[in-house]
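Form 7-S
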Amino acid sequence: MYVPPHFAVLDTEALYGLIETHPLGILVTNSNGTLDANHIPFELDRSKGGQGILNCHVARKNPVWEELRDGDEVMVIFRADEAYVSPNWYPSKHEFHKQVPTWNYLVVHAHGRVTIHDDERYVRRNVAKLTHRHESTQPVPWKMGDAPKDFVDIMVKAIVAMQIEIISVVGKSKLSQNKEVRDIRGAGDALVAVGEHVVGEAMLKAAAEKP
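Output:
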């Protein structure tokens, strides 16, 4: 990923925070010279490995787990949000007419090495952790024990777990930081006004922090 210095995110806490807040990642693999991409929810475990572990599972019928070998390098893309930015939102455009449309976004690319876990006990534990993480915000959290045991057993046998040991994390927050503060703020306010709150508010924060 091309990351100009003014768009680079170097704060590890911010990078991992984005992954945890937006856990649906795109797993990018390269097997036998063919690229593949799978949209999968991940669970980040910061306590394991040098830079953390990403846990996930896929359907047994999905060929990706058979095409990969333990130790293969993969990439997972996490995106917080994106938004179109009109040049009309930059105050300087109305003075000098030297602005063009762009697209702003917040993303993280996690590179790592994969390990396949086709083991029922491991898979069950993996699913239980992911379920607990996301059900914990519900008024009445669902748990695996709420479903009939034979049904859960069938579902667990139909999936395969994967573990990705992170070896590098790259973040990019493209928020018009290469513009004047008034332009960043003007576009940020415009995005918030049209309901694009994530990118808009991030731009306003970037404007406030710009020297």
